[in-house]
Specification:
Layout lengths: L4 E5 L7 H13 L4 E4 L7 H14 L4 E4 L2 H7 L3 E4 L6 H8 L4 E7 L2 H9 L4 E4 L16 H10 L4 E4 L7 H7 L3 E4 L1 H4 L3 H14 L3
Parallel strand pairs: 1-2, 1-8, 2-3, 3-4, 4-5, 5-6, 6-7, 7-8
Length: 206
């Protein structure tokens, strides 16, 4: 798992498979360092995931699957992202193996993040931090949670939710290592959008 960078999450709704793949490649060209395949109503999930896996590996970026350990296992993805109801880390690790990347949504719960990191999570995710079209009903997270997490958690910290180039720097300064973005990339021309986020990491000290 990269320690820093842009974490692109797919937005396949109302797009063809070819368009999804094209968009993800553009985001990778723009500097995305991790890709998550997220599709809440998948029809061709194994096909899309397989294509994205080949593409990500061509750009030396890991592909993670949202919610589905079984899909990650079926296509040989690099790992999985687990939400509130997506099962236990130990079971995902048993199925996917010791080298799989397993990330966990922790919302605004620093104690949960500590527990998940101790249980073997490879990264923990907080959010949403700003109003979000992709997660309009998600409970808000506080920037102070990133600061508290940074003091006590060794795995990478991901921030998500309404993140734009104009507000992402605040999250990096507070302790986020990776910025997870959906609409901020894929509602625009993905390569140039990804480059705009990339400048935040260039300007932020390690």
């Amino acid at each position: 798992m990269p320690r820093r960078g842009l974490y692109a999450i797919t937005q396949p709704e109302n797009r063809t498979i070819n368009q999804v793949v094209k968009d993800v490649e553009a985001a990778l060209r723009g500097g995305a360092s991790v890709v998550q395949y997220r599709d809440k109503n998948p029809l061709d999930a194994p096909q899309v995931a397989g294509l994205l896996l080949q593409l990500c590996h061509a750009y030396h970026a890991p592909l993670l699957i949202n919610d589905s350990v079984s899909l990650a296992l079926a296509v040989g993805a690099d790992g999985v992202h687990l939400g509130r109801d997506d099962g236990e880390i130990a079971e995902a690790r048993r199925l996917l193996g010791p080298n799989a990347i397993i990330g966990v949504s922790c919302y605004n719960d620093v104690e949960k993040a500590r527990t998940m990191a101790q249980a073997g999570a490879d990264y923990v995710a907080f959010g949403r931090f700003f109003p979000s079209g992709s997660k309009p009903l998600a409970a808000p997270a506080e920037i102070v949670s990133l600061q508290r997490a940074k003091q006590s958690i060794d795995v990478p910290i991901v921030a998500i939710g309404g993140i734009l180039p104009k507000n992402g720097g605040t999250l990096l300064a507070a302790g986020a290592d990776l910025l997870a973005v959906i609409g901020g990339i894929f509602d625009h021309e993905p390569e140039s959008a990804a480059r705009a986020y990339q400048t935040l990491f260039n300007h932020q000290p390690e």
